[in-house]
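Final report, Chapter 2: Outcomes

The project's central promise was a pipeline that accepts a single protein chain and returns its three-dimensional structure in a standardized token representation, suitable for archiving and comparison. That pipeline is now operational. To close this chapter, we reproduce one record exactly as it appears in the project archive, with the input sequence first and the structure output second.
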Amino acid sequence: MSISMDIPQEFLFTCSSDFIFLHAASVENQSIRYSDIALYSQKLPNWLEAHQDEPHTYILQSNNSAELCCLVAGLFLSEIPFCIVDPTWTNSQMREATQEIPFTSFLNGRDISALHTQWLSLIPSQKQTTRELSLIVNKTPFAFLFTSGSSSRPKRIPLRHSQLWAAYQATQAQVQLSPNQSWGLCLPLHHIGALSIVLKSLLSHSSISLSSSSDVQRWNSWLNGWHQCRVISMVPTQLHKWLEHNRTENIFPLVSEVFRFIILGGGPTNAPDIDEAGNLGWPILLTYGMTETFAHICSIPASELPKPLKEPLPVGQMHPAQSIELRYEEDTNDPIIWLMGTQIFSPEPSQNRLLQSFDEQGWFCTGDIGKVDEKGLLYIQARRLDRIVSGGENIAVDWVIKCLKQHPYVHDCAIIGVNDPKWGQKVVAFIVPVLTMLAPSIQKNIQAKSFGALTELEPFFSEELLEQCRRSSLPASHLPKEFLYLTSLPRTSLGKLNVASLQSLYALPRGK
């Protein structure tokens, strides 16, 4: 399929009762059709009393549901800006994150459900005819998403039609979705990987099939052709659990002829899982991307990799009209990934912090460390230094550190992500304790160690630190899986934490 880089002036949508937009449940007659979504998009502006004379944005906070998917589609087609936030955020977190978005209204799960019920009551009276619905393309953001940065305060990323079009074209060239073929959605909608599924499905007039984040039985049915499933998107942790479940239960689902790919993104993938999936006949598409690139910006089918697989696995070649440069950081000499292209986000003029991620030519600094081989395949050696991706969730490192430093025994600490077959990366904490707070026997043990040598304190200390994190309302995904103890943290000549040294220290045998 050829790829058009010229963004159209408007998006056209075929609104027909013959085309299914969403499989809302296992019962087919509960499916939502494109003609229903057209009705929703027509009614929403009046129901929401959306302002037409100012950039009014609706903040959506809800768990994944058919109601949320339909509302997102309706808002997009109605040209009403929206922002989906993490449903686990507290009210204070949400207010802090969204305070810079002008003219906002908040819709929670109850509000979204009420809108859904009001809309469904109108569907029986709608004439089931096929017609075209158009959406005018413009340069202003149609939506926003948040991504964790170097502190607990998230970054607001504007999403634009040009990014969507470029990402959609690249995906269609690989997946080739058709009407009534479905995309398996088991990711939370406040992640770009999930939101892009809804929007790309609209552009291809295809369907969405929903599941929870752990419904392996439904995933097996998707693989077997249920809802004419064409593609599934998930993080490596979900694939690991899926394979583990099927292996334990001796389940071997057949792969249907219509099925194309399991798209993996959101963190490191381990070779054994890819090998196992390949041996089962499961087609895997390895990818790399982020919110700022409108989901994956490069990819490669695992079947095209030479065997035996060796880690780290490549994450693919750049999509058309997307470019990559490796620039060596002066202090560490690490090759940092810079990107340019139509999938890269454009900050708003007021977003000074995000504007600093771009150079004068428009190249975007990801902060990730990587390499590119002679075939143009990208390898990620370390994700951006201010982020760890564990189980598909972004870990705000500074937030974890702040919680740990509140404990009176902690003098200094650092957090790294360590490759893990289950989580993709696991959170590991390095602690420099306040020696005078510890028992004399423990002080003597630590002081006898040379710099950087690892030593384990009594287990109760680690439990105390975990309890400290829980008291600080740290999300479960952020809790360290291991605690290791140092006399001091390794730093560069400029005082910058040497993450590579911590990774090497972690690999040493304990007590050496």
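Archive annotation: Residues 34-48 form the longest helix (15 residues).
This record, like all others produced under the grant, will remain available to the consortium after the project formally closes.
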